[in-house]
User: Fold this.
Amino acid sequence: MLNNDRFIYEMPPIDFWDGWIPFSSATSDPTQFGIIEYDEESGMEKADLTKQGQKLLRDSLDEVRNILQEFTSWEGDGIFYISSIPFPDVCLSKLVFAVKQSNNGTTYVVAPAEYSHIRHYLVKVI
Assistant:
């Protein structure tokens, strides 16, 4: 799930998604985002950890959808992308979600930190 502050951006279309993974592909191996960590000594099977990570990703996407519906003009369509950003104060990374609306290309980003280079597109901090 997302934790702490969420910075919500509404911006012009983004056409290049280098470094982002379509959400539909992301759930195959949630460990790639650094949100959960596989530790052989923990005794947890990697398959169980993958299921736990998949649930975390789905729950986080549901939360992001709710945030966008409540605080932006997102119309509920488009392909979601996901990335992660490392945070020095926690052991694991935090997730960044983005969706490009199908009808007009407006791109929405929900991030765990403020991005100064797109600050003028900031809609809300929750």
